[in-house]
Specification:
There is one protein chain. This protein is mainly beta. It is built from 1 helix and 11 strands. It is globular and about 40 Å long.
Length: 120
């Protein structure tokens, strides 16, 4: 599976962005999926995970602001990010794998990152 993340950019605090992760090679429907982010000087951390059946899990810091979703027909994963804050600034990555492994940051396939920068 090849994954390509896009949709990042520069936004002011309180703004919104929608990230996309397009997959090729195999149907995304076969996999659970996750979004992660890595701020400068820190380790990559989980943001949200969605199962193949649509069950979701979010880290506390993004609950109520971010929504993970998937469109299996388009073979695409999304992350809608609302009320963005400067602490959300990071490179965002998508991953495909198994739910339990994704929760631990151990995805099977990883996409390229997309930079999100939130100004105050």
């Amino acid at each position: 599976v090849q994954l390509q993340a896009s949709g990042g950019g520069l936004v002011q605090a309180g703004g919104s962005l929608r990230l996309s992760c397009a997959a090729s090679g195999r149907p995304l429907s076969n996999y659970d999926m996750g979004w992660y982010r890595q701020a400068p000087g820190t380790q990559r951390k989980l943001v949200a995970v969605i199962s193949s059946g649509g069950s979701t899990n979010y880290v506390d810091s993004v609950k109520g602001r971010f929504t993970i979703s998937r469109d299996n027909a388009k073979n695409t994963l999304y992350l809608q990010m609302n009320n963005l804050q400067p602490e959300d600034t990071a490179v965002y990555y998508c991953s495909a794998g198994f739910f339990a492994a994704l929760l631990g940051g151990d995805g099977t396939y990883w996409g390229t990152g997309t930079q999100v920068t939130v100004s105050s």
